[in-house]
Design goal:
globular; 9 helices; about 45% helix; about 250 residues; alpha/beta
Length: about 250
């Protein structure tokens, strides 16, 4: 039996990177998985890649009507949620001088508003004793140039995780935050203007990591699985760093 045998999991932002790797791992461990993505083509490809025991729901987490559709799809199958991985989000570079209202609204809309209402709207379907996992970032404490808005949005996630762990303890719902460092995902590549700059960015990031390389999405997925499973039954309100030591050493 897998670590999530017979359980139902929801993974937002499940079409690539850490989200897709986690959805694949959850399904391999016996869970039925609902994944979301904003683009239908990418969503269909992810569902095909995961294979069995998966439903894809096109959804933008910053759109509350889309979240309602997601949870209606779960309920329509007569399911309740044992694991919620609120992973959808993203960011882009912009210095203080360059930051626009649209940049702020887009970043906070997906990372903060989206995470808040992803969890809030799941509450009626969450089983007592469920595991909720949020996606943070090492950027929230690093102060990297031109990444301030993104970093601030991820600092909000750190706060949400601690508050919600306290608020939901009466239902034995555990809330934890996985904190990835430089992971080799399409999101990292998308920060660069072209392939050459993407290569330079990845080389720079790898050089900052004490382990000397970027992480793989599957390595982050293993950490999320730990927080989702009974292996972490006495863990709540914490942050689990998967960063190759970049924020620790």
């Amino acid at each position: 039996m897998g670590q999530l045998e017979g359980k139902t999991a929801v993974v937002t932002g499940g079409t690539s990177g850490i989200g897709l790797a986690t959805a694949q791992r959850f399904a391999a461990e016996g869970a039925y998985v609902f994944i979301t993505g904003r683009r239908q083509e990418a969503l269909a490809a992810a569902v095909e890649q995961i294979g069995a025991n998966v439903t894809g729901v096109r959804s933008d987490v910053s759109n509350l009507a889309d979240l309602d559709r997601l949870y209606a799809a779960v309920a329509d199958q007569g399911r309740r949620i044992d694991v919620l991985f609120a992973n959808a989000g993203g960011g882009s570079f912009a210095s203080l001088e360059e930051t626009t209202e649209q940049h702020f609204d887009t970043t906070f809309g997906s990372n903060v508003k989206g995470t808040l209402f992803t969890v809030q709207k799941a509450l009626p379907l969450l089983n007592d004793g469920a595991s909720v996992i949020l996606t943070g970032s090492t950027a929230s404490t690093k102060g990297g140039e031109a990444f301030g808005t993104y970093a601030a949005s991820k600092a909000s996630i750190r706060s949400f995780g601690r508050t919600w762990a306290n608020e939901l303890k009466g239902r034995a719902i555990r809330v934890n935050t996985v904190v990835p460092g430089p992971i080799d995902t399409p999101g990292i590549t998308g920060l660069a203007a072209d392939a050459e700059q993407a290569g330079e960015l990845k080389s720079y990031l790898a050089g900052q990591v004490p382990l000397g390389r970027m992480g793989d999405p599957a390595e982050a997925a293993s950490a999320v699985l730990f927080l989702a499973s009974d292996q972490s039954s006495f863990v709540t309100g914490t942050e689990l760093y998967v960063d190759g030591g970049i924020n620790q050493l």
